[in-house]
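README: folding subset

This subset contains proteins for which both the sequence and a predicted structure token string are available. Records are stored as plain text. Below is the entry for N-acetyltransferase domain-containing protein (164 residues), shown exactly as it appears on disk.
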Amino acid sequence: MIIRQLQVGDLTAYRELHRFGIVESPNGFVDVAATDAARPDDDVTQMLARGEGWGAFDGDRLVGKLTIDALPYPSLAHTFWIHAVYVHPDARGKGASGKLIRAAIESAQSKGARRIALWVNGVNPHARGLYERMGFRQTGHIPGGIQIDGAYVDDVLMSLELPA
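--- output ---
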């Protein structure tokens, strides 16, 4: 499995995997099919051009992905945020998620990150367990912060402090 920064040329594969993930694992996303369909390719292309996307490849096939970025404010630039982590069912159990997260953390550290943060659905124990094994700790909690199919579930903030 190869882990690398995604490029603009990966747009189609990225969008296909993201759309598949929304349907296959709705508890892993705050995005839904309608909001994803309304998002222009140009928005995703810009994210890829900024180097914020990471991918796990099995040969030429994109099987896992995540996004990591910092908010565009100097006072918040030390915290990078991980979003939209997803690995295709065919590639699960092979360490892709951990490898993606490690690569993203290393990249963020090289850009001056002091903290990595993410939000995770409170009813996604698999993801929470992965993040905890990687050193993330719960640092916030919004009861009923996410609505999925009319049900409200908790949104959990997790953070990883990085050495100076």
